[in-house]
Design goal:
By secondary structure, the chain is α/β, with parallel strands linked by helices. It has a single domain, classed as 4-Layer Sandwich (Metallo-beta-lactamase, Chain A). It is 23% helix and 25% strand. It has eight helices and 13 strands. The longest helix has 11 residues.
Length: 257
C-alpha cells in the first residue's frame, strides 16, 4: 500500500497561508489531496482520483493501473479523473472504475465528455475510456483479481465507502464508523483512517475520535490521513499512542496477504 496523498480538500500548504506547518521544511508536512494505491499479485488498484493525481503517480513511477475504486463523490476525491486518460490509452482498452452509486452518478454528470458516447471528439484528441461498475456495501467483489469488500461509512450525512482488501483497510473522510463496520474491520493488520484535526468537525473525525476508533478495531498499525495544516507530522507523531501514527505522502507499507 502506498499513500499518494494525505491532505484535506485544501491540501497543505494551503493557498496564502503562512502558518508554521504550511511553511514547514519537513517534507512529511506537504500533503496533497487524499488517495492511495494497493498493489498485490501483479494488480494495481487506485483509490480515488484527486486533483494532484498526475503529480502523485509520476512521483511514484506508476505507469499501469488495473482498476479504480472511489470512496465518494466529493471533488477532492474525483476531479483528477482526466489523468486516467493515459492509462486507458496505454492499455488500449477501457479502465474499470468502481464505487458507490453516488460517486458513479457524480462522475457521469460532472465529466459528461468522458461518459456520453454521443459526444464526438475532434480528430486527434482523446478522452479517458472508463467503465462504471457499482459496488454494494457489505458484498465482496473481485476487482482486478483482488477481493475487495466495500464498507459503508458516514461522512456527516454523505454515504461513502471504506475498503477492506485482504489485510489492509482504507477509510477516509469518516465522521463515524458504525458498530457493524467496526466488526468488518477487525482483523486487518494495516488500517488507514482519516483524522482532520484535534477539535470537532461536523463531517470528519477529530484526531482523538480516530484514535479511539483505531483502538477499537485493533489493527497492528493505523496510519492517519486527510490531515489539515493544524498539526505538524512530528508533533502529531509525538502525541498519538503506540500503533497509531500520521501517514505522509509517498509512505509505502508492505504486508503479507
Amino acid at each position: 500500500m502506498t499513500l499518494l496523498g494525505t491532505g484535506t480538500s485544501f491540501g497543505v500548504p494551503q493557498i496564502g497561508c503562512r502558518c508554521a506547518v504550511c511553511r514547514s521544511s519537513d517534507p512529511r508536512d506537504r500533503r496533497t489531496r487524499t488517495a492511495a494505491l494497493i498493489q498485490s499479485g501483479g494488480s494495481t488498484l487506485l483509490i480515488d482520483t484527486p486533483p494532484e493525481l498526475r503529480l502523485q503517480l509520476v512521483r511514484q513511477g506508476i505507469d499501469r493501473l488495473d482498476a479504480v475504486l472511489y470512496t465518494h463523490e466529493h471533488a477532492d476525491h474525483v476531479n483528477g479523473i482526466d489523468d486516467l486518460r493515459m492509462f486507458s490509452l496505454r492499455r488500449k482498452a477501457a479502465l474499470p472504475v468502481y464505487g458507490p452509486q453516488t460517486a458513479l452518478d457524480y462522475a457521469s454528470r460532472a465529466f459528461r465528455y468522458i461518459f456520453d458516447d454521443s459526444l464526438t471528439l475532434p480528430p486527434g484528441t482523446s478522452r479517458p475510456r472508463l467503465t462504471l461498475n457499482l459496488l454494494n456495501a457489505g458484498e465482496t467483489s473481485t476487482v482486478a483479481g483482488l477481493q475487495v469488500r466495500p464498507i459503508g461509512l458516514d461522512h456527516g450525512g454523505t454515504r461513502e465507502y471504506g475498503y477492506r482488501i485482504g489485510p489492509i483497510a482504507y477509510a477516509t473522510d469518516v465522521k463515524s464508523v458504525p458498530a457493524e463496520a467496526i466488526k468488518e474491520l477487525r482483523g486487518v493488520r494495516i488500517l488507514v483512517l482519516s483524522a482532520l484535526w484535534w477539535r470537532p468537525h461536523p463531517t470528519h473525525q477529530s484526531i482523538q475520535e480516530a484514535v479511539e476508533v483505531a483502538q477499537d478495531i485493533g489493527a497492528e498499525r493505523t496510519y492517519l490521513t486527510h490531515l489539515s495544516h493544524e498539526t505538524a507530522h512530528q508533533a502529531l507523531l509525538d502525541r498519538v499512542p503506540a500503533g497509531v501514527e500520521p501517514g505522509y505522502d509517498g509512505l509505502s507499507v508492505e504486508v503479507e496477504a
